[in-house]
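#onboarding

Welcome to the new folks! Below is a worked example of what a typical request in this channel looks like: someone posts a single protein sequence, and someone else replies with the predicted structure as tokens. Don't worry about understanding the tokens yet, we'll cover that in week two.

Example request:
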Amino acid sequence: MGANYTRQSTYTDGDTISAADTNDEFDQLLAAFAANTGHTHDGTTGEGGPITSLFTNAVTFGTGADTDISVTFDANTNDGVITWMEDEDYFQFSDDILMNSTEKVQFGDTASFIQQSSDGVLRIDGEATIDLNASTAVTVSNDLKLDSDAAVLGFGADNDVTLTHVADTALLLNSSRQLQFGDSGTYIHQSADGVLDLVSDTEIEINATTIDMNGAAELSGNLTLGAQLRMPDNTASKLLIADGTSYEEKALGDLSEISTVANDDVFLAVDTSGGGLKKIQRSTIVAGLATSGAIANVVEDSTPQLGGNLDMNGQDIVTTSNANIELAANGTGHVVVKGNTNQGAITFNCENNSHGQKIIAASHSALSSSSGNPSTLTLPSTGDASQELVSTSATQTLTNKSIVATQLTGTIANARLDAQLQDVAGLAVTDGGFIVGDGSNFVLETGSTARASIGADNASNISSGTLAAARMAAAQTAITSVLATDLKLGEDDQTKIDFETADEIHFYAANAEQVFVSDGVFGPQTDSDVDLGTTGARFKDAFVDSLTVTDDVTISDDLTIGGRAVGPTPTAVSASSNHLTHNLSLNNNFITTCSAADDIEFTSLAAGQSGNIMFIKSGTDQPTASAEVAINADALTRLATAGTYHMTYFVKATSGGNHVLVSVSGALT
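Example response:
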């Protein structure tokens, strides 16, 4: 209990107050408010009422003595105590601490904290690294999940063994590190790039109903089989052959062939009586073929078939008794003489077989451009029973044969023509000349000797009455229209004006369409492909109602705008992880809201860029500026006060620090 205050005097109107009366009263007041013996304000009578509020921004507990300082929370059932440990230099909490809702316990700055992020979920967040140290072990009582797609578990003081998550694929053990079993003598590891080793100091046992090995297997020791050795299904009919070093599966066709057969040579044969695979000597086979049941000549086989190509071996196919050799293809089939490195050919020899004439197919390159495959040569079907083919050097006389003009190409000097056609063939080819009949022969006419009028009807089409004048001059003034479907005008098919599409005009250059004109549109054929002028030859003035530009605009001279220059709607910016990021590739102007000590930063900078920010501040926390921002310290202090501010910025460079200049107005009313 502290000293009470007891009233010392009572006065009524007309009493005389002496000095002793007031001195006694003041002594009681001094005693009640003495530093160590005054009122305790514990709620008891005479001690003053309990203190419910300390109206100050700074409270000091303790007397400055070298001792611990405790704050006790005196409750009915359970008390709470917070103690400042003087010598240890930390706070000691004698009871549990419960953080309300998602509030955090922060360490160092706001980026490192412990928090219940949602009901039942504890979040430990380190700005860079979370270091868990325990003298014996760190125990995780349930699942441990690493949420990063490239998470790495490192082992050892220098992380010499790592296990890396390969997203959606695998866990990767680094370098040639081992996964050991039992002791260091049994392990799996990659001994070299692409080489997986399974190592055991005694035995490796593989138990499975089926073991599928895709690739060659190399055994440096003995192979002991407790069951049958079976070939894979996809190598049916192959044999397992020993070559003196190893066994290898081979088809019969892969074996080396012997050129001659001796009587003691041995064949493999299947004994159909049930004896399985056995050997048989050549002499036994020959003896068996000599029996009455064997075929002595091919003629004895009434339905012979070839199992492969028939090699003539330098021999001929001959007949006796003047018999024919007939090749009879079935149905629509035909006899084909194949080519190899040369075209297919048939040679017909003379009776002495000393001369021959060859029929040879056209080359592959000639036939591949032909519309027909195979092309067909049809022999004559009427006339004499015996006929001859006409060659390039033949001298036969052709009778009753018709040749039309479309069949005559090239030089026809050797053609047998009537007298009038010979006249034409003998005329010179003269530029501007033309051939006319003079009543008995055909003669060459030129502009100076022209004698015929082509008539008024034809002449009207070319503004001339004679053939000589029909040759158009370079400049035409009488043509008033040229109208045609799919009309093309130009130097060639690569540089032209093309009316290929109805109601459109297409302009080509360098073998590509550059621009087109359609109803209400003059545009490029390909997006962002055609320039309007060049750096050396520019258009003078452009009169445009409206202009839409989707990329940067470079103006090398003054720009005068008669109306308003309206930019896009300002981009909204709010804090993300305590950062107010202004991405200058999105906009020049921003509306930014800030309610905490957030960091003001600018990204995607372009030198010379400037703009405006409507900065809406709530709360009393002062924002900060990132390294690229140059801003007056007083301006940052002003932003600690809630209100609306106008910011302007200018980018003087894209790097270097303090290269974005920012100014701030006072709070706007």
